[in-house]
Amino acid sequence: MAANPLSVPNSQDPPSALVTRKARVGTKGVNTLRVPTDSPQDHTNVYFPSLPDNLARQGNPMQPLRTGNEVKYYIDARSAYEDMTDAMDTATGSAHFIYMLNWFVDEDFELRADVPPSSGPGAQFSTLRLKWTQAAAKKVMIRAMFWDQQLNIANSQNNKEVATINGLATGAAILDGRGNETILQNSPIPIPLLNLLPLHVGSQHQKILCIFGEQGLIAFCGGVDFNPDRVPSPSPTHGSPLHDVHCRIRGPAALDLLLVFTQRWNDHPEGQIHNRPPSLGGKGPLITMASAPAAAGSHVVQIGRTFGDISAAALGIAPYGFARKGERTAREVLLRAISNAQRFLYAEDQYFVGNPDLEAALKQALARPTFQHLTILIPHFKISDMPLVQQHRRAFIQKLIDANPANKKKIRVFFLRGEPGTSQSDFEAGQVAHTYVHAKLWVVDDEFVSIGSVNSNNRSWSHDSEVVAGIHDVGSSTILRYRLAHKCRIELWQEHLNMLDPDGAAELSDGVAASALWLAPPPGALVKPYDINEPGDIHVPIPILGLPLELALYNAVIDPA
What we know:
Helix content: 25-40%
Low-confidence stretches: none
Structural class: alpha+beta
CATH superfamily of the largest domain: Endonuclease Chain A
CATH class of the largest domain: Alpha Beta
CATH architecture of the largest domain: 2-Layer Sandwich
Strand content: 15-25%
Shape: globular
Mean pLDDT: 88
Number of strands: 18
Largest sheet: 16 strands, mixed
CATH topology of the largest domain: Endonuclease, Chain A
Number of domains: 2
């Protein structure tokens, strides 16, 4: 059966309601009208960092700045799952591969929504397990690395999926706990409880899918895990389906997402065992690409990564061979873009508890006389999965407000509340659908957008494994076209403000003027102002190492730098 054709990129056309609007024009003199859409401007040198000398000295350079890419963004997971399924179907032979890096994987839930139940008892719904099985039958190479949440004794997250892939003739998978080593990681004698004490408390948080098949290299990254909490269910829990953003990249930058996988796999001891030929107990080395794919579009992309410094030689724990002192290039991509914002910033983030580097970048942008607003969308702390999140959000946002008297009006924080009229008790119990913000996104001046797994906290910027795609659309000479970041921001605001028709898109065209609609939301809007001073965290004054207990716990375990 032939694979489904790949979906087309996002439309960047302005809404018809904007194009056809009438204007009154005086009859004397020369009058020029221009619909307020994007003219071609190349701001690549503004939004992307050059190689910092300190990173070069560490042997830890930025990934190259790649032109000629085609990027498609996904708002929420269903359309992303459908496109990932179609992409996996393009892998049809022994020269093709499917590579996965994920924090959480469930092999059994339905990825596609378009297979009718009336197909009968023999119908096969598209699940990951089915896709892996079908690909292996075609001799496609399947390799995967999923997070090993080894500190949670009762948790078997990803174990079944690793076993499924390892049971396939062309499949190999690893539970990767690097960065989450325990103090007695290599102790020859297990000591109850002590061998669970964490040394680094990190997680493998990247969400990357790379497929090489009949359509060439196709790569995905963002915030979407293969988790049923991303699609509607009869009984929503934890604010599911979670709101998220993901992207597909074709072109030269896809090679840099592939590099994340190949470096991690080849560096891992189990990966090296799997790379052996079958005669030596392995399944063969990775299929790799010697050169970058051909240009596929007009988007400029730079991939940034985070890898913690896991070296602890005295305990026998080796560093990453490809990043011996860790890597912070995701931080560099975000810092350059955020600090150079001229008019506004829009962020969606799961935590937004901040870190010193992000604080400095935001203060730099906020201080500009031309800068109008920083609008932030986060989940309410009562449905957050992060302990002490309200206390640390409050402190971080307050620092930004206190930096300048004008910042109090410029900084606007909101949460998703669900449909108007929903029960407050249901909301606080996480039973109101689509209220948990899991996205990790920044839009800068409608010209640059970052999509990835990087949250605005210490972990993501310095500690856990993360990835981010920084995307700038130079534009073209075509009249009445939006940049990718511009159209993405409009579509997100349409969803959150319940302005889904073309007139709504037209009203949201200007990222500064339309921000007033967040302050006075239209009927049916799904957002509400966030009160950073709302009580919500428990203060335990018992000191540990001179710090209150909860702060010591936060710094050491919840959000270590």
